[in-house]
């Protein structure tokens, strides 16, 4: 007998059965004693040559301790010794995978499966992992599916099936796979995180939250997961809980930029501007501050009514990132809050158009629309606001009254937010196109494929609207509607207004040709509004002025003028409200300090703060006698609400379209004596109204009927006017094509 190794000697000194010897090897493997386990396997093979269980254990040891090449050499010798052994080929596949020989590894796994198909769940799983990690998710998903068919209680196969399906954008299927993994292993924290992220992608934030919370409780305590939970809670409007999640995260990771940015946004949305500003400034002072933080600071100062500082932040954001279209759009919006030289304002809009729209002009493709001036027109409405929003309430009366024999209506919805108003748009549109999750290029391609004749871009500069879709010229005729200034884009052909919004002698400039309706403003009647009460002055004997406009419009210049009015009428009071924004100590201090500096006893000023249902909100107009319109960014929805409740509105139009919305409504109602030509006249009109209780009382009892009977509430009239407008510009395009 040849000389024996120590392991062989021990095996012969204490005679063991094969089973006992293998148990000893397994004990060594469990203890991580790989070298001793190898010696024992070698001893077993010297006594039982080519013993398959020992060979398999040596394959495992080789894969764990040897380099890939050495492991492959050992495993090949084992394959030669046991060519019909499934697990040896499985180890061969693993070794080849380690050497990045993907196709050879896949062949090894396939051979293993062919040897024992019924017992190959683990092999299918490993082959799926190989395919998934080498960019072949569809093939990987098929392998995981086979592994699951063979072993339905295989949580890791379900989990990786979810990973593969999500990379294929099969989000619903991925969510099912993750749920099955969790059902088999409730403590599978990665599956919970991945399921939560998938549900967020599906806009099912409420379903995602408990899985984020469970994953965190299971130890997935990473900054990204705290941030994802906070983001989902914020989307659901559960801002206090989102804030708490972020603050817990900040205790662990105090320097996380995303936490400070998101916390600032949540605090800002609650009107807690000082705290929000502190979050943003912590990042703004860093050399690598993201431009979106600077844009957020722009929003903070805008909400405070400080447009100068707001604009400075926008300019700095553009210095950091000249390609930030959001920063440039915020800068343009900021210009609306102050009076500026019209030439400068126009130049800034052209700067935006030249920088962000013009590069896409080359992408415009020839239009195949039939140039028939009399055929049914395809009208596309592009908006983020097909929901409970002022623009939706302005558009719905028109869209719901369209003559579908004359126009075929397409709605391109840039938001995933959906409510009862969204359902109304879906009902009245001929075609509903959800486009929130696709690029501007893809939206333009869809519009072009739909054969849209006239594309109407709604309120392009606001919120999440997509005006740069129009830069691709997806429709032959493009119209800006419900925006407050020029788009600055040469490819925007027209802008809809009326003679009050855009007088022909105005110095304001537009890249668009102005289309003037007989009257512009239209909205949905407030059918559930309470009946107007008598003016409060009839009881108190002293006038109460008020404004329920966004505080961003109530600049220092506006407050100074209101202070002049209060100085002229020493017994008058002032009520200000906008949602719950005046809960903010910063906003309260800014407002009251400015008024006090102008000589107003702030005990005469009431700052109200609450988020009310519409009926309760409208009932608050019973507390004021005369509504004061801010400037130069005047009211619109707020003006209509005041008039509907029988409260007159005093307005001061300036040289821009954005300052004339209230004046346009008042002209439609033939109430032009409420339109001031300058600040002195503004004060005089308000004072005159405050001294005329009979007129105020008559307005309370009769103004709603006057408004209801006016073009402001006549949707069918406005629909016919818009259709005539669409027909006119279409015929103009057809004539140009013919020439």
TrEMBL record:
Outline the TPR repeats, range by range: 86-119, 121-154, 155-188
Which EC number(s) are documented for this chain?
2.4.1.255
Q: Name one GO molecular function term.
A: protein O-acetylglucosaminyltransferase activity
Pathway per the UniProt entry = Protein modification; protein glycosylation
Q: Under which main EC class is this enzyme filed?
A: transferase
Concerning its family, UniProt says: Belongs to the glycosyltransferase 41 family. O-GlcNAc transferase subfamily.
Tell me what this protein is called.
protein O-GlcNAc transferase
